[in-house]
């Protein structure tokens, strides 16, 4: 039985039809980022359908409650503008849920009409709908530009714009982790604490989208970066933005508007990217890295050396978000694996260039496409197969059809759990990535080996 | 169990007041009309509930949009049609395989359900219009797959910029000649919920597809099954039972359906409506145009399944069929009874709440009552008044601006194909014997007096209800799942069944009994507090022995 039976092997260029996208729309990214603010209710300014879809998708991935309100446009609002709906929404939200922060993002609809969030915010303040002491964060997130990653970035930038520099440095370092799992955000905090640097991490969904089950529902869980911390971002000694696509805009804004110097780094997946993160972190903060960090690093190197024979020369196809893919491709190359197909739905020629650069001089040729889709990637695989797939749950159809193991990594993962609890960033996360990849490759070997070659010792 | 039951008896009126207390006055007034303390029995005139009205901005709703109802619900399970979402990528992405519609591609093997097709509109398409891109996308789909049909779905921005998707489709259909291409103006801002989308979908399927296939399918006792979407394999189980009874299912709208099935629907002799909310319009139109009568059935619950089968038997009034139906029921019921006996000690006397989209909040109460469980509160996400109060209130429904912008299509008797399946006398004889055509009772009638019926429940009210009434199980959708479970109350998804199913028919009932038993008996709900949290005060010092 073949699930994607209509996918032809022959690749024909398509100009208009997207099939099996490797991206989704901006607002969901903004919603996810907003959940990383303490006491925040995300609000989707548009028709209620988008909000329902975004909440469902996030819930399915994180297996956690995702509260978000909507302006619930009907035809009238679509014609006359959504200001009345949003003002009414703010009023209701404050009476019923009383959040500290409302983080509003737009949708296709409100963007197309041209609703201006800043003007609506001012009106909300003037009419007393937004009580004093409450914070309004607004981000435009038109879905016909970029992808969910862009939306995430736009909301993170809106968060940075809350900064109120006092002119006195507070000795902290801003770290913008990008769209990673709550567990990854936790790991970044742990690593920074080990290095001995006081950081402000934003957004921070650790403790929000991996909260405990206690018999009590907290609409606003304990985690998240506070508004006070965000205001303090302008007094930091520096900003590390992890990921050009997810985090750089916010960091550059803080740099140019608040004079907080920034460094844009890759997301710390794998050995080298984590090395750079730790190295820059200690330089910015002016501390020396303790032995405990080097110890963890050594463990990762140890596992690479122990299991190198199984990684060596293995061909991999990957799809997902640009920042994550860049670090992953680098990591795979460092293991002597061969990331031969790389697809992201998020547009950007820069991405293709970066992946090409990473693969330069390697003993394989990489096919890379920004603004690609999984249909195309599947066709490539049909023409010349790979040993491993790395990407989100939607890859399970290709995995089954082509009988190739799939490492579920990225967004969304709808059919497995653990990503919200176990990090894949940093050295510890690297160990986990290796463990998962090895498990897949060796399970495969155990299944495929002929009886005569089936071995106990591997 | 660590959870303590409420000892205080709350009056339903107190509960209603509690639910409304926090709202601003205007919101409270509106919600008051959507929350009703049930008093309905057949003799009493039930009070009116406000339904199918706009969602209140800012109030966290369970609802989705018109597009979701059209593309997701109705057209989602149509396996051999290429469904293209015209719009930016999100809407198409989120409706990609997320409803757990199962399908059997059959011998022809055509199945596009695992694919997501979109025009992925970019800013230049929004500015300059997306018609060209849409035409190109349809062409590319045709060239790649040569499907029998291509359907196009409009999302919000498409309606706003005014792309004429119908004209594009018409042009492409004429160009291809052997591929039916048509479109749905199902922009999310139209209507107030998914319900408008069901209506739009059904109208177009009826106008562009039903009746296309002139060859009558083979088989006896031909029915259409309307409003069954094969979530978690429900449709498979119903088909198994129908087949066993010798009943021919010409077409299911739209679970596990195919293009040919829709195209042949006019050949059935009876329409059986499962989810009346999503599809009663089609039943009406099939009757007007082709003369096929319709009845309401319910295959959720073993008793309801048996009842529905008997109702079909009675309609065809053929001893051979009636005997076979009885034989099938007699054969299937012992397993059901055995499963029931097994779970009853764990489920009897327990309570449930059900807030799901359409008729599931109603149908599933049958299964719960088979397990001895009482429904304390229920309601729909996108119902109209008749779903609560019964079909007879339809003439009294107010047509507001939001309903008016959903196209009503005029249907007339087909000059050639109209063929009343029963004479007026036959119909009358059946009706005199208590047989009900074109009828459903609504949720209120089924529920006990003093239970609380709530339309368009929102997250805040859900939380309050659970806090006040502590049900043993709460049924809703994925968005509600984890906030309910955080309170220590098990939550069962009834839109997409979590990972379970089928729950329809006899085998489905058995599955559901076991599933609910698992949920209400799970040990996990006793782990909420750590030992040191149960008695945090230190009352003495520990003495080492
Ligand atoms: S693409 Fe636009 S309309 Fe569709 S879900 Fe995303 S924001 Fe909403
Ligand atoms: S409300 Fe509009 S934009 Fe949003 S999901 Fe529905 S159709 Fe798409």
Can you walk me through this structure?
The complex is a heterodimer of chains A (458) and B (545). With 458 residues, chain A is an alpha/beta fold. Chain A is 45% helix and 13% strand. In chain A, the strands form three sheets. Chain A has a five-stranded parallel sheet, with helices on both faces. In chain A, helix 1 crosses helix 7 (148-160), helix 4 (83-96) crosses helix 6 and helix 7 (148-160) packs parallel to helix 10. The two termini of chain A are 32 Å apart. The mean pLDDT of chain A is 97. With 545 residues, chain B is an alpha/beta fold. Chain B has helices at residues 12-20, 25-34, 66-75, 89-94, 123-128, 131-145, 156-161, 165-176, 194-208, 234-245, 259-263, 276-290, 302-316, 319-347, 360-370, 385-389, 401-404, 424-432, 443-446, 459-469, 478-486, 505-521, 531-534, and strands at residues 35-37, 81-86, 117-118, 149-154, 180-184, 222-228, 248-254, 270-273, 294-296, 351-356, 374-380, 452-454, 473-476, 491-493. In chain B, the strands form three sheets. A six-stranded mixed sheet of chain B has the order 1-12-11-10-13-14, with helices on both faces. In chain B, strands 3-2-4-5 form a four-stranded parallel sheet, sandwiched between helices. In chain B, helix 15 (360-370) links the parallel strand 10 and strand 11. In chain B, helix 6 (131-145) packs parallel to helix 8 (165-176), helix 9 (194-208) runs parallel beside helix 12 (276-290) and helix 13 (302-316) packs antiparallel against helix 14 (319-347). Chain B is globular, with a radius of gyration of 25 Å. The mean pLDDT of chain B is 94. Chains A and B meet through strand 1, helix 1, helix 2, strand 3 and helix 3 of A and helix 3, helix 4, strand 3, helix 5 and helix 6 of B.
């Amino acid at each position: 039985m073949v699930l994607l039976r209509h996918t032809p092997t022959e690749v024909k260029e398509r100009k208009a039809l997207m099939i099996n996208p490797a991206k989704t729309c901006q607002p969901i990214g903004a919603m996810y980022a907003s959940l990383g603010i303490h006491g925040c209710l995300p609000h989707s300014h548009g028709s209620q359908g988008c909000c329902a879809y975004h909440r469902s998708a996030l819930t399915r991935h994180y297996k956690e409650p995702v509260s978000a309100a909507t302006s619930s446009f009907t035809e009238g609002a679509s014609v006359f503008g959504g200001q009345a709906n949003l003002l009414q929404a703010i009023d209701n939200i404050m009476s019923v849920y009383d959040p500290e922060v409302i983080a509003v993002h737009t949708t296709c609809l409100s963007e197309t009409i041209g609703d201006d969030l800043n003007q609506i915010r001012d009106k909300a303040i003037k009419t007393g709908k937004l009580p004093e002491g409450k914070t309004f964060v607004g981000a435009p997130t038109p879905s016909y530009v970029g992808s969910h990653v862009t939306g995430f970035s736009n909301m993170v930038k809106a968060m940075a714009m809350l900064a109120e520099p006092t002119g006195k440095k507070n000795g902290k370092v801003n770290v913008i982790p990008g769209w990673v799992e709550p567990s990854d955000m936790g790991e970044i905090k742990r690593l920074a604490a080990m290095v001995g640097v006081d950081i402000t991490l934003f957004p921070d969904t650790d403790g929000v989208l991996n909260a405990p089950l206690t018999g009590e529902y907290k609409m606003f869980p304990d985690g998240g970066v506070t508004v006070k911390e965000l205001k303090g971002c302008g007094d930091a000694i520096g900003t590390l933005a992890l990921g050009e696509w997810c985090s750089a805009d916010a960091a550059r804004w803080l740099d140019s508007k608040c004079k907080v110097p920034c460094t844009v780094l890759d997301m710390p997946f794998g050995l080298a990217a984590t090395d750079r993160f730790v190295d820059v972190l200690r330089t910015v903060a002016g501390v020396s890295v303790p032995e405990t960090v080097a110890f963890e690093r050594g463990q990762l190197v140890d596992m690479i050396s122990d299991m190198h024979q199984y990684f060596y020369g293995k061909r991999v196809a990957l799809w997902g978000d640009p920042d994550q893919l860049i670090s992953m491709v680098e990591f795979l190359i460092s293991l002597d694996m061969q990331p031969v197909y790389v697809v992201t739905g998020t547009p950007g020629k820069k991405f293709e260039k970066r992946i090409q650069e990473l693969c330069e001089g390697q003993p394989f040729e990489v096919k890379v496409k920004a603004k690609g889709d999984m249909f195309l990637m599947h066709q490539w695989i049909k023409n010349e197969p790979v040993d491993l797939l790395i990407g989100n749950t939607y890859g399970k159809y290709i995995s089954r059809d082509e009988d190739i193991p799939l490492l579920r990594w990225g967004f969304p993962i709808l059919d497995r759990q653990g990503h919200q609890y176990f990090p894949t960033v940093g050295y510890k996360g690297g160990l986990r990535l290796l463990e998962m990849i090895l498990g897949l490759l060796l399970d495969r070997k155990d299944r495929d080996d002929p009886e005569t070659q089936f071995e106990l010792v591997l | 169990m660590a959870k303590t039951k409420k000892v205080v008896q709350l009056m339903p009126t107190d509960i209603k007041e509690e639910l409304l207390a926090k709202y601003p006055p205007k919101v409270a007034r509106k919600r008051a009309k959507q929350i009703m303390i049930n008093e309905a029995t057949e003799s009493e005139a039930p009070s009116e509930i406000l339904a199918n009205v706009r969602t209140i901005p800012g109030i966290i709703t369970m609802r989705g949009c018109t597009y979701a109802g059209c593309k997701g619900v109705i057209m989602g399970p149509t396996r051999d049609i290429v469904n293209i979402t015209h719009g930016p990528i999100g809407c198409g992405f989120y409706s990609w395989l997320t409803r757990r519609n199962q399908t059997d591609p059959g011998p022809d093997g055509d199945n596009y359900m695992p694919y997501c097709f979109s025009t992925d509109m970019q800013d230049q398409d929004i500015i300059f219009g997306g018609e060209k891109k849409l035409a190109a996308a349809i062409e590319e789909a045709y060239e790649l797959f040569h499907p029998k049909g291509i359907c196009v779905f409009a999302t919000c921005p498409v309606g706003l910029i005014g792309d004429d998707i119908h004209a594009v489709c018409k042009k492409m259909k004429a160009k291809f000649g052997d591929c039916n291409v048509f479109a749905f103006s199902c922009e999310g801002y139209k209507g107030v919920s998914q319900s408008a989308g069901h209506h739009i979908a059904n109208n177009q399927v009826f106008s562009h597809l039903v009746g296309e296939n002139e060859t009558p399918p083979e088989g006896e006792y031909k029915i259409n099954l309307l409003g069954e979407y094969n979530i978690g394999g429900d449709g498979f189980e119903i088909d198994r039972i129908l087949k066993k009874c010798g009943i021919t299912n010409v077409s299911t709208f739209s679970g596990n359906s195919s293009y040919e099935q829709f195209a042949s629907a006019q050949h059935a002799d009876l329409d059986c409506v499962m989810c009346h909310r999503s599809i009663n319009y089609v039943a009406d139109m099939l009757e007007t145009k082709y003369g096929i009568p319709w009845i309401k059935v319910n295959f959720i619950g073993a008793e309801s399944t048996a009842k529905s089968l008997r109702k079909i038997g009675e309609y065809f009034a053929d001893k051979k069929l009636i005997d076979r139906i009885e034989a099938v029921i007699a054969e299937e019921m012992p397993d059901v009874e055995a499963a029931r006996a097994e779970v009853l000690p764990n489920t009897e006397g327990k309570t449930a709440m059900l807030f799901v989209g359409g008729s599931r909040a109603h149908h599933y109460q049958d299964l719960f009552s088979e397990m001895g469980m009482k429904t304390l509160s229920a309601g729909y996400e996108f119902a109209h008044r008749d779903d609560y109060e019964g079909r007879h209130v339809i003439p009294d429904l107010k047509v507001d601006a939001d309903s008016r912008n959903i196209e009503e299509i005029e249907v007339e008797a087909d000059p050639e194909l109209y063929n009343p399946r029963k004479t007026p006398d036959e119909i009358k004889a059946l009706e005199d014997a208590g047989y009900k055509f074109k009828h459903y009772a609504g949720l209120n009638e089924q529920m006990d007096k003093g239970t609380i019926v709530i339309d368009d429940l929102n997250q805040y009210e859900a939380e309050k209800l659970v806090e006040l009434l502590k049900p043993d199980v709460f049924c809703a959708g994925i968005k509600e799942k984890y906030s309910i479970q955080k309170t220590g109350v098990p939550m069962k998804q009834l839109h997409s069944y979590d990972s379970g199913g089928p729950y329809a028919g006899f085998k489905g009932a058995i599955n559901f009994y076991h599933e609910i038993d698992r949920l209400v008996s799970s040990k996990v709900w006793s782990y909420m507090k750590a030992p040191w949290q149960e008695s945090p005060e230190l009352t003495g010092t520990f003495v080492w022995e």
